[in-house]
Please model this.
Amino acid sequence: MEKGMFPQWVLTDPDIYELELERVFSRTWQLLGHISELPNPGDFVTRWMVDDAILLVRNRQGELKAFLNSCTHRGARLCMSASGNRKAFTCPYHGFTFNLDGQLIGVVSGDQIYGESMVRSEWDLRPLPRLEVYNGLIFGSLDPEAPPLEEYLGHAKWYLDIFLTRSDGGMEVVGAPHRWVAPANWKMVAENFVDPYHAQYAHRSTIEVGITPRDPSRTGTGYNVVCGNGHGIVLIVKEGVPKYQNLPASMWPMFERNLSREQLEVFSKTALILGTIFPNFSFNCPLHRRDGQMYNYLTLRVWRPLGPEKIEVISWCLVDKDAPKEHKEKAYKAYIGAFGASGTLEQDDVEIWSRVVEVSRGRMVRDKQLSYNNLLNYLMGFDNIEPDRSFPGPGIAYPRTYTDHLARGFHEQWLKLMREDRRASGQAERLAAGNGGEDR
Amino acid sequence: MMESGTVGSTGSGSVPVSGMELYYEIQRFYAREAWLLDRKQYDEWLDLLTEDVVYRMPVRISREPEDGQEVIEEMGYFEENRESLELRIRRLKTSSAWTEIPAQRTRRFISNLFLESGPTGGEVEVSSAFLLLRSRAEDEQVEQIFGERKDVLRLTESGWKLSRRTIIPDQTVLTVKNLSMFL
Model:
């Protein structure tokens, strides 16, 4: 990566994938959802962190809790619903019942058959090691030693805040996410959201018919902001774009109250804010056409790996809670016109991602001796562009979006984690020893 | 009217007198629609839609009965009117709609037609089952999507037209890589 190249075979190699599950996905923060999906006590959603089934609930005190969605008795999946509201969860296998705090509160025929031999509190649901919320975004981590979420997000927070905090009521999820399975590798897809270079050609059809704004990205004007920890933010900035992403003028005083002068300066000139939070959470806060006008919305997406060549896409649409009803409706329709399973941009993205994986299995992309060129090209902007030190936001801002700094940052972080063997450093042993007493 | 290799028009412009005749006309409408979409004759398909057509496909989620409805009306895969359908079709006709270059081969199977109500006011409500199989490039695996459609068909001077369609997928996680087709 220091040379701007990345081996193609690494994308979909099965052994690399297994190592990614251990060294990337067991140690990083991943998006679970948004607080507007579970506003009331008893509300829950079920999600996946790769292969871990997660039950995310709001308890009676209004606190968020996350557990493995698996009964502690014999392991059956506890809750089959994607969302709902409950007082307790009962396993269908033997009837063990758990409350919203994950405590085992009901055992069929319990006292007669278990007697003193079972201490109920030892059989509570298994909590997700880490759960934190940042301005409405709910993240989880399997790593008890993960840094605090805010520290992990680092410089990216300033940019996320532009859309997460611009409105008094924040953002709210519309309905439920789209979910579908696609032939793709999660890295290539995460990288796609920090690669504005593809838009001009891959999405040419949507520009031609006016779904995507005609110019903003054509010359790569704007900023690529390297935020550290593998996170990258793209700002498509151009003079003449509609102020504050064409959101209703009635909302502007609210934006100007909630954002800093520097954030407003960026926000007012920006057509699209998009990016990837390492490893597999991407977002886009763009402008797309519906019924003759451009509307802004936010899409969050998790690229859930289902193998080296397969992902499940979970794609949410959010709108400003304080926006007028008509705006929300049009914004939602603009979203499905562009993103999600039916989106006219995403239709072509998925097709192209599948074209990458289908030709990355062979000998010629793997064998250096054959080496026609088994390295992929990340050379754009390698030595011909300097950061803009006067840029008002944090991170390292390159004043052009046609550069590979963000993709390189993503893959450098990937490589850093893939090289860290905690077992070798003894950390895993210490953890195992610490948990030994609780082993069941 | 003769059936032939080309897909003919349907309907005579007047409400059929017998139930069997009505059912036959509706069945012909769906067969013709499926042929047009499988052959990607989108302009002819648009001719089968009313000007005020509402074309929807809500998202479905997994739910145990106590947790509420599976169909989420607030979020859809499609939430289209005539203008937005025409926009999607204009895009598919460009030389850079990559998902259809080369064109994906589809076959729609529309069955289990059931006339829910009508004809009243020149409209009938029809439920049908759909199965769409799709073959891409030289893939050995076939994609599929299936479910139920609830339609309102309206009799116009140029025959039956679709004025409302709600597509309910049977899957909560779709196993097609995109929805570049119409269902």
